[in-house]
Structures are given as structure tokens and as C-alpha cells.
Amino acid sequence: MTSLDAVTAWIDNYRQAWATNDPQLIADLFTEDAAYFPEPFTTPWRGRDEIVAKWLARKDQAGTWTFEWHPLIVTDDLAVIEGETVYPDRRYSNMWVLRLDQLGQARQFTEWWMDQSKPS
Fold this sequence. Notes:
The protein is α+β, with helices and mostly antiparallel strands. The chain has a single domain (4-115), classed as Nuclear Transport Factor 2, Chain: A, CATH 3.10.450. It contains three helices and six strands, in the order H-H-E-E-H-E-E-E-E. It has helices spanning 4-20, 23-28, 47-57; strands spanning 30-37, 45-46, 66-74, 79-87, 90-100, 106-115. Strands 2-1-6-5-4-3 form a six-stranded mixed beta sheet.
């Protein structure tokens, strides 16, 4: 069952994994057979091993970003999160679709993002 407490804990753990790029912290976020969509409508990264490998292949360096978020929807089955990621030269608007299992691990995670740094 997804709850705001479970979502908050998952995002706190995600931020720690993002900040450290620790393979175990990344793996612990996801179920063994999770699907991670780094962009909507793309082929997902499937399973912990692929998620960790692909995450590390495009990792951010610690201290190069800030991330703020708030929940838009939290139901028994899913959470939708609105966020903003700021790098020194870029600002992104984020929407995350997150489906947690009973243990608080993501079974499915989809990132939607828009680069707000580029002129329209």
C-alpha cells in the first residue's frame, strides 16, 4: 500500500542514492523485477542490475544539483510527484509516476521532465 510516508521515505532514499551513486542504495530503491522509464514511452530499464548499470552510466556528480518536490496524488497503488531539479546551468521541471510494493520499493518508476533553461 502506497502512503505519503512510504513515498517520502522512498524519495529520501532516492536523493541519497542520487547524491552518492552508491550501487547498493540504487538497487535498494527497486524491486528485483522493477521497470524504470527514464523518459515516458521509452523502453524501460528492467530489473535491479540494469537499473543500477544505466543509472551509473549517466550519473550526476554529488553537489551539482538541488531537488525539491511535493506530492500531487498518492493512492493505494501510485504516487505522482511534481518536482524541480536545478543544476548550475539547467533547471528541470519533473513529474514522477511511482508505484511502490508493500516493502516500499518501486516496482515501476517513470520520469517526465522538461528543460526549463531552454527558450520556448
